[in-house]
Amino acid sequence: MCKVELSAGVARVMARQDGAKTRERISSFVELNEGIHLSGIIRALELGNHQAALHMRTLAAEGKVWSRTEGRYLRFYTSSVSPQTPPDQLPNPPVSYPPDSMQWKLLDRLARNPESIGVKGPLTQGKLAAQLDCSQQLVSHHMLSLEESGCVVSRRAGFRKVWKVTAAGLQALTGGARSLSTVDAYDLDSLISHYST
User: Fold this and answer.
1) Model confidence over 85-126: pLDDT tens digits?
2) Is the dihedral of CA 102, 106, 107, 108 positive or negative?
3) pTM of this prediction?
4) What DSSP character marks residue 62?
5) Residues 189 and 182 sit within 8 Å (Cβ to Cβ)
6) CB within 8 A of 38, min separation 6: which ones?
7) Which CATH code is given to the segment(s) 102-196?
8) CB 115: neighbour CB atoms within 10 A?
9) Among candidates 97, 104, 95, 169, which has minimal Cα distance to 132?
C-alpha cells in the first residue's frame, strides 16, 4: 500500500519501501526467462495484475526492460537483448506445464506409444477427448496453443489432424514432471527416461 501524507491540504503519496526489491525480483526473473509474457511473470512471482504492470512500466521507464507484442502476448526482455533484434532471433523462455494441467496430460498421451495406452492407430482429437473425459473443443483449443508454442506439430490424415510431440514438448513434459515426487501411478525416473529416449 502507498502511504498518503496530508499536510496543509496537499496530499503526497509516499513510495513503498519494498517496491525496489520487487522490481529487482522481476528484473532477475526476466533476465533468466527472456521473452516471458506478463501472465508468466504474475504466476511465477505471485504478483497481482496491477502490481506487475506497474512495476514493468517502471522498469521500462528506467530502461531495464523492454517489451514486444507477439500475438496476444506482451513479451518482456532485459536491456541486454537489443530491441532491434529480428523477431525470429529473440530468445524464448522454456515452456513448462504443471502435471495436473490439460496441456501436460495431452503431451503425456501424445508422447506415449498409442498401443501402450490401449489405443489402435494414431491419437486423434476424438480419442484424446475420450481418454481425458473432456470435450473435443477443449482438446482442440489446447492442441492449437501447444502447436503455437512449438510443443507439437500437426499433419492432416484425411479429415483428421494427427499430432507429434516435438523436442520442446518433451522438455515441457519432463520439466513439469521433475517438480513432483510422484506422477499419477508411474515411477518418476522411468517416466523421465521414457521421454528422454
Assistant:
1) 888 788 877 677 778 889 989 988 888 755 555 666 677 888
2) positive
3) 0.52
4) T
5) no
6) 52, 53, 56, 73, 74, 76
7) 1.10.10.10
8) 9
9) 104
- Which regions of the chain carry the CATH code 1.10.10.10? 3-89, 102-196
Q: Which alpha helices (DSSP H) does the chain contain, by range? A: 19-32, 38-45, 49-61, 102-111, 125-132, 136-148, 167-177, 188-196
For the CA atoms of 39, 40, 42, 44, the dihedral, rounded to the nearest 10 degrees, stands at: 160
Q: For residues 131 and 121, what is the distance between their CA atoms, to the nearest angstrom?
A: 14
- Cell numbers found for residue 2: 502507498
Task: Write out pLDDT tens, residues 143-196.
Answer: 998 988 888 888 887 888 888 888 778 877 776 554 444 444 444 455 555 555
∠ Cα 70 73 75 (to 5°): 75
If you classify domain 3-89 with CATH, what class do you get?
Answer: mainly alpha
